[in-house]
């Protein structure tokens, strides 16, 4: 019987090496993982978790992914942020936390993991709603981002609203429909924010039932037309959660793309 693709969301993972705050709220923190081995310092990889920006999903479900990245030699930070259903979550707090966390974490990680993190701008690895946040940060604060790997990102908020992804998740994030809060969509929607200057790779499974792959195809085409340095890797027979599961068939491709982004950086 095929394994449940959602099993990664509750799979145990090793505890992080450190948890550091980047703000005063209990959700403005990140879990840090020291890279395996004794190699040179490398740019930080910041993992931005998904869950349609909702409070019931937190950074813990990216533990297996983050542990696998650390085992592969990368210093890793699992970014937490205020989410819808929490005080300060939604508009604009969720987006502001992503901006602040990405800006602050390289220095915090370098202090907490001495000799293992360079001061270079980090690589952002975002999944689903976290892919949206990674693209948003790269578009609005380009100096803080060295590259983006967006896994099944919600890259078009207006279209996600029209499709009613996760039963109103976008309206909960931004406080209404595109016709009701158009300025918020203009400020937060990656589709409206191209070009993205950091090198970006979007990966999407063709069998994704949570976020349609068509959304990534159309976003990447639009971003390329605006002269973004962006490419799309579409994985056949891959669904939404395989992209963050180190035990999946998709994982070697994810790791190879991250390696190319990291090494080029």
Automatic annotation (TrEMBL):
The UniProt record lists the keyword Hydrolase: yes
UniProt-annotated stretches for the region Disordered: 1-28
Residues that span the membrane, as ranges: none
InterPro entries documented for this protein: AB_hydrolase_fold, BD-FAE-like_dom, GDXG_lipolytic_enzyme
Keywords: Hydrolase
Domain of life (superkingdom): Bacteria
Annotated BD-FAE-like domain residues: 31-220
Pfam families associated with the record: BD-FAE
Gene Ontology molecular function: any one: hydrolase activity
Designated name of the protein: Alpha/beta hydrolase
Source organism per UniProt: Micromonospora tarensis
């Amino acid at each position: 019987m095929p394994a449940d693709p959602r099993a990664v969301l509750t799979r145990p993972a090793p505890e992080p090496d450190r948890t550091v705050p980047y703000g005063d709220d209990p959700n403005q923190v990140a879990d840090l993982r020291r890279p395996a081995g004794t190699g040179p310092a490398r740019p930080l990889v910041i993992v931005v978790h998904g869950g349609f920006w909702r409070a019931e999903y937190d950074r813990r479900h990216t533990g297996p992914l983050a542990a696998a990245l650390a085992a592969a030699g990368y210093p890793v930070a699992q970014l937490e942020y205020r989410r819808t259903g929490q005080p300060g979550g939604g508009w604009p707090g969720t987006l502001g936390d992503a901006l602040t966390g990405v800006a602050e974490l390289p220095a915090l990680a370098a202090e907490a993991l001495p000799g293992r993190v360079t001061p270079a701008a980090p690589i952002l690895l975002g999944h689903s709603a976290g892919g949206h946040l990674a693209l948003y940060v790269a578009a609005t604060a380009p100096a803080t981002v060295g590259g983006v790997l967006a896994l099944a990102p919600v890259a078009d908020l207006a279209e996600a609203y029209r499709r009613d992804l996760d039963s109103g998740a976008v309206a909960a994030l931004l406080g209404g429909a595109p016709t009701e809060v158009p300025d918020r969509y203009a400020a937060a929607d990656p589709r409206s924010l191209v070009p993205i200057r950091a090198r970006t790779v979007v990966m999407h499974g063709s069998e994704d039932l949570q976020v349609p792959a068509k959304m990534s195809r159309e976003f990447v085409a639009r971003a390329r037309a605006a002269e973004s340095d962006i490419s799309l890797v579409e994985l056949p027979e891959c669904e939404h959660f395989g992209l963050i599961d180190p035990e999946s068939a998709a994982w070697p491709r994810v790791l190879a793309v991250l390696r190319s982004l990291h090494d080029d950086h």
